[in-house]
Amino acid sequence: MKKKLKQRSSIKAAKVYQKQRCKKHRNNQPRFVKELAGKDFSYTQKLLLNRAYKHDFNRNQFLIALRKAKQQRLKIRSDRREVLAVLIPVLINFCDLSLNRTYLWEIKTDLATIAKECGQCYRYIDKNDNVRERYDTVNNAIKMLEDAELITVLREMDKTVGKQKAMRIWLNAEFFIMLGFTETQLRKIMLRYHKYQFINNKLDSLDEYHKQHIARLEASNVASMHNKYKLHTKLSNIRRRFLGDTIIQYVAQRKPIDYKDQVISTYPFVPCFKSEADCANDKEVELLRIRLLNKAMAREKAKQAAYYKALIKEAS
Q: Residues 233, 138: contact at Cβ < 8 Å?
């Protein structure tokens, strides 16, 4: 009897497992291309980049609050952390740090360029033999930062083609606060950078470049700020609350007389942005969850309205 059992166990074939059919999380390893190229950064950019390199995303209170609001596990997947570790320096690299702009901290490039600088732009051939580009990892990381209210993203649908236009991105003050800066430190850093631009006669050249950038946006297929009154108010309030009326008047001077005066850097103000301690409590997590639900309901309502509009158009 024992011999028969041994024969049966030896005859039993091994189970053949099928290959995984789901999509891969990524196709390329994330890397900062500009860093490898050895680009010369300004002192302010180096200061921000050094904080970004040392940042631990598993201890980021803004992302922890987001994952609590979405009822997800607190630890971020390693693939997403690696993408974020490269995406944050790239956003700092393309960020306009000038204080005399209508909206602060705009990312002056498109999402495809950001993905290429992160090494996450993947080219493939579709069923029609057309070469296409994918950067889902960067796009998902951008959505995560947007849900955590660290950045502001402007999206718009091109009605003639039926596709999304190129998005515009602005960094919020919480983006720099999550790197370990306080509001007072961040204000001093930005004012020091503005003084550096003035002393080295770079204000006029940067303003001219900004005007050319706005002209290119109007001529290209990019999401427009036209009729976006709520977004305009939000971004304007960020600048007004961060700088204050006194510093806004100081920055608006084409030739500031008191650019060496250090009193302007220590001008008293009331903290008006969320710190890491503020977003960690349960009350703020619940408010964030409600805001995310309201955004999801608004998107679903817009989809249904567009669907019914298309049905009415076909019926007529």
A: no
CB-neighbour burial class of residue 251 (10 A; exposed 0-12, middle 13-18, buried 19+): buried
**Scanning the structure block, which residue is given the tokens 């999401």?**
223
Q: What are the pLDDT digits (tens) for 300-315?
A: 998 898 888 888 888 8
Amino acid at 284: E
Q: Which residues of 223-244 are buried (b: 16+ CB within 10 A; e: fewer)?
A: bebeeeeebeeebeebbeebbb
Q: Which two tokens stand for residue 301?
A: 């309502």
- For 257, counting Cβ atoms within 10 Å of its Cβ (0-12 exposed, 13-18 middle, 19+ buried), the class is exposed
Q: Which amino acid is at 217?
A: L
HSE, side-chain direction, 13 A CA sphere, residue 33 = 12
Q: Which of 109, 73, 72 is nearest to 91 (CA)?
A: 109
Report residue 60: phi and psi, to 5°.
-75, 115
Residue 294, class by beta-carbon neighbours within 10 Å (0-12 exposed, 13-18 middle, 19+ buried)? Answer: exposed
Q: pTM score, two decimals?
A: 0.82
Measured CA angle at 180 (ends 176, 185), to 5 deg: 75
Alpha helices per DSSP H over 17-77 = 33-37, 43-53, 61-69
Interval 20-40: pLDDT, tens? 444 456 677 777 766 545 566
Phi then psi dihedrals of residue 250, to 5 deg: -65, -45
Quick check: helix, strand or coil at residue 3? helix
Helix (H, G, I), strand (E, B) or coil at 254: coil
Ramachandran quadrant class, 119 (left: phi over 0; alpha: psi -120 to 50; beta: rest): left
Q: Under 8 Å CB-to-CB from 33, ≥6 apart: which residues?
A: 116, 117, 118, 119
216 contacts 208 by C-beta, under 8 angstroms: no
Rounded to a whole number, what is the distance in angstroms from the first to the last CA of the chain? 80
Q: Round to whole Å and give the CA distance between 206 and 243.
A: 20
